[in-house]
Amino acid sequence: MPRKKLFIAGIFCVLLLCSCNKAYKNVVPADAVVVGSVDMKALFLKADWENQKKDVLDLLKDNVDEEIYDLIEKMAEDPLNSGFDLLNPAYTFVTLDSREPDGFIAISVSDMEKVKKSLKKIETLELRDSDGMFFLQFDDFVLGVLTNDILLVGSADDRSAYRDMIKQDKGKSYFSTDAGKFFEEKSGDITVQINAEAIPQRYIKELERNIERETQISSDYIDAYKPLLSSKVQLNLTFSTGRMSLNMYVDGMDDYAKSHMAAKKINKEVLDYLPTRDLIGFAAFGLDGKKYWDLSETMINRMLSEYGMNRSERKMINRCGEFLSQVDGTSLIAVNGMNFDDDLEVLGIVPVAKKEFSNLMSDIDQDLPHNIYLYGNADYTALTTSSRYDLAKVPSPFDKPVKSNYLYAYFNPYSVVENIYEEETRYAEKEERNMLNKIFDIFRLADYVELKVPDTDEASLEIVLNDNSKNALALIINKSVNCANAYLEYEKYRKEQWRKRQEEWEQQYSGYYNYYDEPEEVVAVEEYDY
């Protein structure tokens, strides 16, 4: 019998954790332009909340209003008993029904009475019951409505907008549309999707008029970008052990990408010219120069003709276009050295498949293969005579992505962070240096950053941390709390120093103040007989 009860209790707990009241998602209207979701359950687990909540609450206790802190504390200590259903995702969305964009947040509610009781403790929040719905108002700006299972808060002035969203059926929900289905196909801990198809025509017409007026570009040229207005772009942020990933998915841009971008597969030949010293990062990408130039030439010429163009400027543009039109293959940009006293040392490598353009920049060393062209402000002679870049030194699967991606980028943030830290703390006092050191600890978490674009409709940005023992979110929260505490301590130190200087100043000049502040002595004038 006890085993049976234990089994039933276990099943109940699993159902409680996995249950998701999806009815509240229907409040997201079908014409939402931007939709986002936050997976609260996943974030609580990945943040190692049980071990970190004490530090977070200690930080908030002296820095937020008492009423708000009480609400946060109750939610943090017992999320299931707060009245908010934090095991379900919270949704945010933006609509363009009015002249100004309106933003909203929809949160699932498990116990309306507990939520109302908690909200009533916040002095700046007013609650009013109307038509069976419980409206709330915050600082004369944010309006919201509470029902048995939904808390909908937003910036719209018209309360009827909230009623329409609450009462709309599933067929009018964003998640019943193609954009909503695309949203749910791929999702992360934090997901944001932009649906260009939902942008009202008046906004598009106004944008086209502004572009045409400001740049003198004809409507025929603007038509080339029309496919972008039917696209959907989705960004997913996911935290995992030792890394965080930002993935981008694009739907509806295939025709635009194929006709205007036409990226070429990356070859490995040009990478031999990467420098060996002080490498900060580099990007390799396929480029069809003629397609890019055909796309840009009209716009450049029309913009420049508005301000006038002399013969030398026209000649320079034509030469650049002639050069770019010959580029067909891998292009590469590398940032080599970084020094605040000098410029960044930037190197660009472009394989030219058709012919060599040595007459464009005569100062460049031409001891190179006939199909490679260098530009930038690096020491090219050293590149052609020194040892080539060692791929094994990059702590990532470098070789494979370069062969199979349209774009591949590698970035080493450590050297940049250390250079900035050194510059910022050069003349800093000890207390400020300690504070800045804690802030820069957040950026020191990253070991390297990778950007991969395998196709025209997908991309991924991976930030790999040097500590792979914990989830990236837990590490970031821990460092952020330390950073906030260090900042607050430094602010306290600054105020104390200022108070001491004020006291010293008042003591030093108190005599002068007493002298000038004393009332003038009234001297009696003697009367004389003349």
Describe this structure as you would to a colleague:
The chain has 530 residues and is an alpha+beta fold. Helices cover 42% and strands 22% of the residues. The protein has a 17-stranded antiparallel sheet, with helices on both faces. A hairpin with a 6-residue loop joins β2 and β3 (102-108). The longest helix has 46 residues, at 472-517. The radius of gyration is 31 Å and the shape is globular. The termini are far apart.
Radius of gyration from the alpha-carbon trace, in angstroms: 31 Å
Average pLDDT, all residues: 75
Number of helical segments with 4 or more residues: 17
Strand content: 15-25%
Structural class from helices and strands? alpha+beta
Question: Quick one: overall form?
Answer: globular
Question: Main beta sheet, described?
Answer: 17 strands, antiparallel
Give start-end ranges of low-pLDDT stretches: 1-21, 361-366, 386-398
Tell me roughly what share of residues is in helical segments.
40-55%
**Counted beta strands:** 17
**Termini separation (Å)?**
127 Å
Oligomeric description of these chains:
single chain
What are the defining features of this structure?
alpha+beta; 530 residues; 17-stranded antiparallel β-sheet
Q: What's the short version?
A:
The chain contains 17 helices and 17 strands. It has 530 residues and is of the alpha+beta class.
What is this structure's SSE topology?
Blueprint: H1 2-18, E1 34-38, H2 40-46, H3 49-61, H4 66-77, E2 90-95, E3 102-108, H5 112-119, E4 125-130, E5 133-138, E6 142-146, E7 150-154, H6 159-167, H7 178-185, E8 190-195, H8 201-215, H9 219-222, E9 232-240, E10 243-251, H10 254-261, E11 281-288, H11 289-307, H12 311-326, E12 328-335, E13 346-351, E14 372-376, H13 380-385, H14 399-404, E15 407-411, H15 413-424, H16 430-444, E16 446-455, E17 458-465, H17 472-517
Antiparallel strand pairs: 1-2, 1-8, 2-3, 3-7, 4-5, 5-6, 6-7, 8-9, 9-10, 10-17, 11-12, 11-15, 12-13, 13-14, 15-16, 16-17
Helix pairs in contact: 3-4, 3-17, 11-12, 15-16, 16-17
